[in-house]
Amino acid sequence: MTLRPAVSLALLCAMLAAASVASVAAKTTDRNQPMNISSDQQAGTYTDNSVNVISGNVQIQQGSLDIRSQRAEVTLKNGEASRVVFTGAPVVMKQQMDDGSPMTARADKIDYDMIGENIVLIGNAFVEQPRGSTSGPRISYNMKTGRIDSGGDGSGGRVKTTIMPKSAQAQPAQGKK
């Protein structure tokens, strides 16, 4: 298995960090680290146009980036990763930011469109950093424009955001767990 499609997963975490209340960057040196993927099963060709499935206790680690899910589906177009969909209950993503602070994101599903540079956290979405947290049924972030859209999924769920005072930045955020 070539790790080229998986390397783009580090970009996914960078987007999640940007979607959070605090605007700090994911640890940029992580992208230059080896990526280790472990799971119960992997199936696919990782060539041309294909869908590759990594399933069962999926663990992806690259530097400080740590992603845990039950399933990761990697779609390739012309041999390049174009989309990664993580599912599980929940998908959990953690990474240290360039400033040393931790970032945690959780959702039932995380859908990353690498071509459109858009990430969507769906179902019980939650992003937390020391400066604050955001939660709701759905959180979408566009890497090209920086636009964040959070909102309901028709179920009446509400978006909740906590912004910690700047003086409390060194303390862990007290957001929804």
UniProtKB/TrEMBL annotation:
Chief location bin: periplasm
Gene3D superfamilies (UniProt xref): Lipopolysaccharide (LPS) transport protein A like domain
Start and end residues of each Organic solvent tolerance-like N-terminal domain: 36-146
Family membership noted in the UniProt record: Belongs to the LptA family.
Main function: Involved in the assembly of lipopolysaccharide (LPS). Required for the translocation of LPS from the inner membrane to the outer membrane. May form a bridge between the inner membrane and the outer membrane, via interactions with LptC and LptD, thereby facilitating LPS transfer across the periplasm.
Compositional bias (Polar residues): 168-177
Name listed for the protein in its UniProt record: Lipopolysaccharide export system protein LptA
Keywords of this entry: Periplasm, Signal, Transport
Annotated localization: Periplasm
Region called Disordered, residue ranges: 131-177
